[in-house]
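ARCHIVE CARD
Drawer: 12
Card no.: 0347
Subject: one protein chain, sequence and derived structure
Cross-reference: see card 0346
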Amino acid sequence: MKVIQHLEEAKRTLFSIEILPPLKGDNIQEIYTTMNELIQFEPAFVDVTYHREEYVFRDAGNGLLKKHTVRKRPGTVGICAALSNKYQIDTIPHIICGGFSKQDTEDALIDLHFLGIDNVLLLRGDAIKSEGRFVPEPDGNRYAKELVQQVVNMNNGKYLDPDLSNVQHTNFCIGVAGYPEKHFESPNQQMDLSYLKQKVDAGAEYIVTQMFFDNKKYFSFVEACRTAGITVPIIPGLKPLSTLSQLNILPHHFHIDIPQELTEQVLRAKSKEEIQEIGIAWCIEQSKELKAAGVPCLHYYTMGKVKAISAIASCVF
């Protein structure tokens, strides 16, 4: 079932999760462990992230360094197929611009179509760590909006090769990302909203937000979206804070604010376990307030912290 159908037919706030593929060399069992723990809360769908390549330099043995391309967390499509088959659940692979030509993207979407996967979350993706800014592949999509347009074209039976005949129309439901605290590359919130509206106007059917720790940021974001003419469902994305170091790491990597009250609670904590309890309690209160406000779905970024998400879900759903 498409995400938009889940949202339209639901009579309550839905529960959904995002999971990371295991590190290369690990097996899928850790994913099954996560699902076995969380399936009791009846997740409507599961997002599976995609991680692009990185460049590393290794000793070539002659005093020189040789550049190697590595992908630390492969397996997005395989995990989606495996979860769909094992748990009879709708899965959503992340599709990014970085590392893909338009032809690569088309081929990946054809594979997903053949597998019966009809939801995708479309993202530009981050720059390679060794590069200062995002650089698209030659003949690749530069922005998520262009990626949305390519998927919409395939849904309409328009492929890259104009000479194809009797082509199959794909049937993807398209999600995109939204940023309650602004994407870090946007000059201001208003421009960021205009970019988001372009993605929706191009064919995106729902929005999932970046994580946030202050619900006021989400409510203000939704209001600004509606004022800008963005009418699609906006799903809040949540993550429980779990370590002291995240007070610095999360703002640095995700360009978000940690509320002063939460910061002070974490700084007063006497142990790692107490910090985890604080993070869970904060996320529970966030979730309850958002649920009471009638949000369509609560989407949790698990990041390997399945016990924390289970504790939250048991109090909210």
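Annotation on reverse: The domain at 3-316 is CATH 3.20.20.220 (TIM Barrel). The chain has one domain: 3-316.
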